[in-house]
From TrEMBL:
One Gene Ontology term from the biological process aspect of the record: aerobic electron transport chain
Reported cofactor(s): FAD
GO MF term set: NAD(P)H dehydrogenase (quinone) activity
Species: Alysiella filiformis DSM 16848
Span of domain FAD/NAD(P)-binding: 4-330
Alphabetical UniProt keywords: FAD, Flavoprotein, Oxidoreductase
Family, per entry: Belongs to the NADH dehydrogenase family.
Protein name in UniProt: NADH dehydrogenase
Top-level taxon of origin: Bacteria
InterPro entries: FAD/NAD-bd_sf, FAD/NAD-binding_dom, NADH-Q_oxidoreductase
Length: 429
């Protein structure tokens, strides 16, 4: 049986940063034998950009980072595969077999032992048992986003040649994902109009449906209020206090009436994988692993971070499921695990520092409130327009910087800019 000192399962916003940080600490000599990162995808895409992939304004082939490249650069090992079983008592985990497209087995199922393990496997969508949920698209991973992008452009083309000449879109969930997706989609639509002839012009009606009294309910009220006029200018119809009862093939039925929808996207709420409940660890109602202030699960030497974990603070509040929280937890665990590797005591507990909330509203707009100094929460500044958009983009660059370093991040950012200049903003294939 293979053995690693530390296994990190899930190379997303938190897990990949943790693997890179720890690998660099161990260095060229030891890192590869001590640390293993497992992910079911071969390419990493930072999840907060999935709405851009979904409408074709971000090219995943260009933006995606190969795990093998990051592993080599940061001195850790990488294994492609899906976690299917977990035994915290024996400290082993099982990675499912890998199959080719024709169904033949490429890599058999394997069990690996560890001293310490970090679960960073993210989350999926919470349907809340809504009838007809299967008619909606979700944005849980890059494949979902690419599948949606293909479908969206198909519908753009179809509508431009139809008698109806109107595409009805319903986005369910007015959190950051839904709001950012609505704004980005209007930009993709306008780009599309630059490409197609005036004879084929069509209308798009985007309905953003939110059950609570305002969009962006998890963000400060001011961010929500300032986002509304921007969405209205983009002609997004916002329906707050509106509960979705059922999704059909052509519409969304709400408690306020029926909304026509050729395309429905579900962005309301998260839920971790059902399989998490079979891993012999304590989980909550949405299958997240319950962790303590040292990010340890109910089993010793097994930690969890990010969207798949639930940490309730002394005041009863919960750490939000955001990339910001996953990033902070990865930094904390890198310190904790490095201290353990050196047999040093580590008494610090995880302290979440809210650095603010930013929302991207298309190519050149954003809104947000950020902490000038996250240690002094009262000292915050409000950002709007291009400045807020840049601040939002800088979070993505920061993530790349954590895993690729400054030089490669700069090259990647410049390459992305150059590509857009040459090929246009929309990926149409
Ligand atoms: C469209 C969109 C916009 C967002 N915008 C923002 C934003 O502006 N700001 C913000 O802070 N947050 C934002 N978020 C939320 C943010 O993306 C998540 O909170 C964050 O990615 C969680 O990080 P994570 O490391 O826990 O999981 P993820 O980043 O989801 O990574 C999980 C990883 O685990 C892998 N995995 C899953 N299951 C298995 C398995 N069984 N075996 C092996 N590998 C597995 C996956 O392939 C993936 O690589 C957004 C989310 C979306 C969808």
């Amino acid at each position: 049986m293979q053995h690693y000192d530390t296994i990190i399962v899930g190379g997303g916003a938190g897990g990949l940063e943790l693997a890179a940080k720890l690998g660099r600490k161990y260095g060229r000599g030891a890192g590869k034998d001590k640390i293993l990162l497992i992910d079911r995808a071969i390419v990493h895409i930072w999840k907060p950009t999935l709405h851009e992939v979904a409408v074709g304004t971000l090219n995943p082939q260009q933006e995606g980072i190969l795990y093998t490249t990051v592993a080599r650069r940061n001195h850790f090992s990488f294994m492609l595969g899906e976690l299917v079983a977990f035994n915290p008592q024996e400290r082993t985990l099982t990675v499912g077999e890998l199959r080719d497209e024709d169904g033949s087995i490429l890599v058999p199922k394997s069990t690996i032992s560890f001293n310490k393990c970090v679960l960073a496997i993210g989350s999926g969508s919470n349907s809340f048992g809504t009838k007809g949920f299967e008619h909606a698209f979700t944005l849980e991973n890059a494949q979902d986003a690419q599948r949606f992008q293909k479908y969206l452009f198909g519908r753009f083309l179809q509508t431009s040649h139809s008698d109806k000449r109107c595409l009805n879109v319903a986005i369910i969930g007015g959190g950051a994902t839904g709001v950012e997706l609505a704004a980005e989609m209007t930009e993709a639509y306008h780009e599309m109009h630059q490409i197609i002839g005036s004879a084929n012009r069509f209308r798009i009606e985007i309905n953003l449906i939110e059950a609570t009294s305002r969009i962006l309910p998890a963000m400060p009220e001011e961010v929500s209020a300032q986002s509304m006029p921007i969405l209205e200018r983009k002609q997004v119809s916002v329906h707050t206090n509106t509960r979705v009862l059922e999704i059909t093939e052509q519409s969304v039925i709400t408690d306020k009436g029926e909304i026509a929808a050729d395309i429905v996207i579900w962005t309301a709420g998260i839920k971790a994988a059902d399989r998490n409940t079979q891993f012999h660890l304590q989980t909550n109602a949405i299958n997240q692993f319950i962790i303590n202030e040292k990010l340890e699960t109910s089993a010793k030497f097994v930690y969890a971070l990010g969207d798949c974990a639930s940490l309730t603070l002394a005041d009863g509040s919960r750490i939000p499921a955001t990339a910001q929280a996953a990033h902070q937890q990865a930094s904390y665990l890198a310190k904790l695990l490095w201290a353990a590797a050196n047999e040093r005591a580590f008494d610090e507990t995880f302290v979440y520092q809210d650095s603010g909330a930013l929302v991207s509203l298309g190519f050149d707009k954003g809104v947000g409130r950020v902490a000038a100094n996250p240690k002094k929460q009262e000292n915050t500044i409000f950002l709007k327009g291009l400045l807020a958009k840049w601040a939002h983009m800088s979070l993505h660059l920061l993530h790349h910087f954590e895993v690729l370093g400054l030089r490669k991040t700069t090259v990647l950012a410049l390459a992305r800019l150059a590509q857009k200049r040459v090929s246009g903003r929309l990926k149409l294939h």
